[in-house]
Structure formats: structure tokens, C-alpha cells
Design goal:
Structural class: alpha+beta
Organism: Dongia mobilis
CATH architecture of the largest domain: Sandwich
Number of strands: 12
InterPro entries: cNMP-bd_CS, cNMP-bd_dom, cNMP-bd_dom_sf, Env_Response_Regulators, HTH_CRP, RmlC-like_jellyroll, WH-like_DNA-bd_sf, WH_DNA-bd_sf
Strand content: 15-25%
Strand order of the largest sheet: 1-8-3-6
Number of helices: 10
Protein name: CRP-like cAMP-binding protein
Keywords: DNA-binding, Transcription, Transcription regulation
GO molecular function, one term: DNA-binding transcription factor activity
Largest sheet: 4 strands, antiparallel
Radius of gyration: 19 Å
Order of helices and strands: HHEEEEEEHEEHHHEEHHEEHH
Length: about 250
């Protein structure tokens, strides 16, 4: 979901000017008055998380909105039987935690770092105060919520109508674009997503992911190097990720 406009350097959360710049480049805050941006930046706090560290848990009270400066954050829920489902992956430039922040109810999901992550937290009271003053920010929030709804609708549609191979190919293509490193062998997905994490993202078993990855490997679409996946043929992988009617 991150765009070039939202990207920030590793030092983005360490100084006031850098935090102001991060806010200004984000979808939520861009276009706002610079004085207001600096005001909210002064109230914000930098945060750092290591791999596997959880920022907040489902059902916890919401006290802040979070913006990504660097890293990868997994938004997830767990079922009564202990199984986990990944709802979204947050990247540089993304803001999250807005639902519970706005309605005052407990968090609807948990957030765990999948990579070393740097982010900024905006206190709830300061954010609501700013939103009351700025109609443009309120509109951006509405647009963000609509984007989340569309994303979730797409996920439900894909799960209902697309086979696992198509969904996995789409996921790997997106990961390669957002977290890919070009090498002579292909595009290495640098995000630390093992087969269990991919299974949680797609709502299937690890065994099903393993079988499909082996199929992609035999087709020459990918290769595995330890825990990393290398996309060897990005064009063919993208084609595999399109529904059959779109490919015909």
C-alpha cells in the first residue's frame, strides 16, 4: 500500500523536522497547513520495534494512530481455536490503527513487526482535535476507510472465487514490488515471511502453501534460497496471478 510519496528514511522518526516530513508525505496528512503538521509532529513520539515484537494486541484500548517510517507490520486476528489470520501488511508510508482510534472501542486486531520497524505514534486526543479543525483530514480518513473496505472486499472475493495458485501468485508479486531486491538470479523478496506467515495471510494451511510453492518452482516462476523466495520470472508470475478470464 505504500507509495513513493510515503517513503521515509531510517532516520525519519528521530527528529521533529523528519517526523513533520513523514506526516506531510503521508496520504492522511499531506496537503494540510504546515503549522498544523508541525504541531501534531511535536505531539508525536518515535517508536522502534524488533522482529516479532507486538505493538498492540486485539481488544486493547486504543490510544494512538501509527505511521510507518521503515519496516513491515502484520495486522492480524486470532480465532477461538487459536488459528491466526493476517488481515493486512503495513509498509513505509502507511498509517494504521484508525478504527479503534475513531470509535473509542478496543482494538479490532493485533499488530506485530515482521522486520525491524521504525514508526511514529500520534496520540488519540491530539489526532481527534486536529481532525475537528481540518475538514480535509476528515475527508482523508473517510477515503482511507473506504480503501480498507475495498481491500477487504477484494480479499473476500479472491478467497471465494480464485484458486490458491492465483492468490499466492498475486501475493508474491505484490511482495516483490514492495520488498524486492534485484539480483542476477531474480527479485529476492526481503520481507521475512515464512510458509506459515503466507498461510496466515491467505487463510490456508502451511502444507497447501508448501505444495503450491513447489509447483511454482517446477514451473520456473520462483526459487527458494533458505527462507527467502526469489521471483525468477516476474512477468509469468504476474500472469499466473490474474484470473483466467483476464488472462484469456
Amino acid at each position: 500500500m505504500a507509495t513513493a510519496d510515503g517513503r521515509a528514511s531510517a532516520a525519519a522518526v528521530t527528529s521533529l523536522p523528519a517526523r513533520t516530513q513523514l506526516l506531510a508525505r503521508s496520504f492522511l496528512f499531506r496537503g494540510l497547513d504546515p503549522v498544523l503538521l508541525e504541531r501534531i509532529a511535536r505531539l508525536s513520539q518515535p517508536r522502534r520495534l524488533g522482529v516479532g515484537e507486538t505493538l498492540f494486541w486485539e481488544d486493547e484500548p486504543a490510544d494512538a494512530l501509527y505511521g510507518m517510517a521503515k519496516g513491515l507490520m502484520r495486522i492480524w486476528v486470532h480465532g477461538p481455536d487459536g488459528r491466526e489470520l493476517t488481515l493486512n501488511l503495513m509498509e513505509s508510508g502507511d498509517f494504521f490503527g484508525e478504527i479503534a482510534l475513531l470509535d473509542g472501542l478496543p482494538r479490532t486486531a493485533s499488530a506485530t513487526a515482521l522486520a525491524d520497524t521504525e514508526l511514529v505514534s500520534v496520540p488519540r486526543a491530539a489526532f481527534l482535535d486536529l481532525m475537528a479543525q481540518e475538514a480535509k483530514l476528515a475527508l482523508h480518513i473517510i477515503e482511507l476507510l473506504c480503501e480498507r473496505l475495498r481491500h477487504n472486499t477484494d480479499r473476500i472475493r479472491d478467497a471465494a472465487f480464485l484458486d490458491l495458485g492465483t492468490r499466492l501468485a498475486k501475493t508474491l508479486e505484490a511482495l516483490a514490488m514492495g520488498h524486492g531486491e534485484a539480483t542476477p538470479e531474480g527479485i529476492v523478496i526481503t520481507a521475512k515471511l515464512n510458509q506459515s506467515a503466507l498461510a496466515q495471510l491467505l487463510g490456508v494451511t502451511r502444507e497447501a502453501i508448501n505444495k503450491q510453492l513447489k509447483q511454482f518452482t517446477s514451473e520456473g516462476l520462483i526459487a527458494t534460497r533458505g527462507s527467502r523466495i526469489v521471483v525468477r520470472d516476474s512477468g509469468a508470475l504476474a500472469a499466473r496471478g490474474r484470473p483466467k478470464e483476464e488472462s484469456d
